[in-house]
Amino acid sequence: MGLPTLSAARALKGGEEQKLSFEEFPDVGLAKTYSLDYLVPDSASTATAYLCGVKGNYYTIGVNGHVKKNDCEAMQNEENHVSSVAQWAIDAGKSAGIVTTTRVTHASPAGTYAHTAHRDWENDGFIKKNCGADSKAQDIAYQLVHGKTGKNFKVIFGGGYREFVDKSIDPKGIRTDGKNLIKEWEDDQPKSLFVDNLDDFHNIDVEEVDRVMGLFQPSHMKYHLEDTENTQPRLYDMTIKAIQMLEKNENGYFLFVEGGKIDLAHHDTQARMALDETLEFSEAIQRAQNYVKDDT
């Protein structure tokens, strides 16, 4: 989401004089983006930079420069792991969660909880293929459910159901290890709730659950413009529900919110989709601001 996208989104919103919600912030800045080994980085190494404060190598997440792309052994060395702002919040007694329109195991949200030598290692099949069947390297979905940071998230909203379930259990799944990580997540802690459709999402009673996971598509969530039958929550719906869950903690919270399909639309040269997703992201931020202001 670069400056040309913002300019075009303003025009789509109503004209050049329009402003997106986050452009009204008191402080707005630009950042140089590069990884240790590439001048033009990807969203894995950049997620490590802005979420963990450490530059990493191309395609790696949550690890320092000692871990190169595809290095199965180095990624398992905890000395090479870097912690994220989400973990810092948890360590400080705050709650944490993630909201995205991509798979929750995709590069950007994974930057809050995962440590991996390759952003695509979202399920066990990729680990077996690249590291060997006997490798103890953990895939990204497994880390979200069982890892130090991910298992303590109070909110997980987005797409990516397929990464958590073996294909023998559900045809929509693509795991090969026989696991149903969603069930393992539900069984790990009491008062855990999993939802996968819009009706169940709207029926979430935040006072009755301690944590919630919502995976609304097998892969990425649909573009807003494609969801003509309203089959999934919008980004602002997920954002407000996440805040309602997290604000129960009097110590405060950290919430990662990503309009991830802006980038995916650009990759596919779908300008109209990219700009609409930018407006969806702006709306989510605006509603979050309004909600927090009303609450305080």
TrEMBL record:
The keyword Methyltransferase does not apply. Its cofactor is Zn(2+); Mg(2+). The active site is at S43. Binds 2 Zn(2+) ions. Binds 1 Mg(2+) ion. It comes from the Eukaryota. It catalyses: a phosphate monoester + H2O = an alcohol + phosphate. InterPro entries: Alkaline_phosphatase, Alkaline_phosphatase_AS, Alkaline_phosphatase_core_sf. Gene3D superfamilies: Alkaline Phosphatase, subunit A (3.40.720.10). SMART domains: alkPPc. It is an enzyme of class 3 (hydrolase). Zn(2+) binds at D263, H267. Mg(2+) binds at H106, S108, E258. Keywords: Hydrolase, Magnesium, Metal-binding, Zinc. Its EC number is 3.1.3.1. One of its GO terms (molecular function) is metal ion binding. Belongs to the alkaline phosphatase family. This is Alkaline phosphatase. It comes from Megaselia scalaris.
